[in-house]
Amino acid sequence: MSTESTEAAHPDEADTGRSATPPAASLERQSEIAADYLEELLDIADLDGDIDMDVERDRALVSVVGGDLGHLVGTEGAVLDALQELTRLAVHTQTGERSRLMLDIGGYRAGRRVVLTELGSTMAEQARETGQPVRLDPMTPFERKIVHDAVAAAGLRSESEGEEPNRRVVVLPG
Q1: I need a surface site. Which of 62, 80, 97, 138 has the fewest CB within 10 A?
Q2: Phi and psi of 146, rounded to 5°?
Q3: Domains of the chain
Q4: What is the CA angle 119-122-123, rounded to 5?
Q5: What is the pTM of this model?
Q6: For residue 12, is pLDDT > 70?
């Protein structure tokens, strides 16, 4: 029996073709490159903000905090998502490796995580009580992952359906 799997551990985390978690030193380097990129961006835009770096499991985390940063988040996190992709591209350009770096600005993603975890738990309870699948509104991959995790923690199963950008979570009853 093979220990390799081509199936993602989660419905919204595609197989990246990597066989192992990046070493901590690589993730720290990704954080440093991202922080340098974001500091330069903040300087160019004449914006104030402090940059915090961390590594969580197999992902580099970079947060920009302080100042008035709402315009860097944008409506429903659209600007934040674009900045995250640009930051990942900057990391890729310097390292030659694909990055799963997570960028947060002004605590937006941290706040969404709390809201979406509660939503997943509530929808799991609704599916359990009604015996019917519960379809949520379309979400980003980041948001769907959080909901899937909350549903699993509640002891139920969920799946994603549809095509981007209208992909949504469906919570399945017991």
Answers
A1: 97
A2: -65, -45
A3: 24-106 (3.30.300.20), 110-172 (3.30.1370.50)
A4: 85
A5: 0.78
A6: no
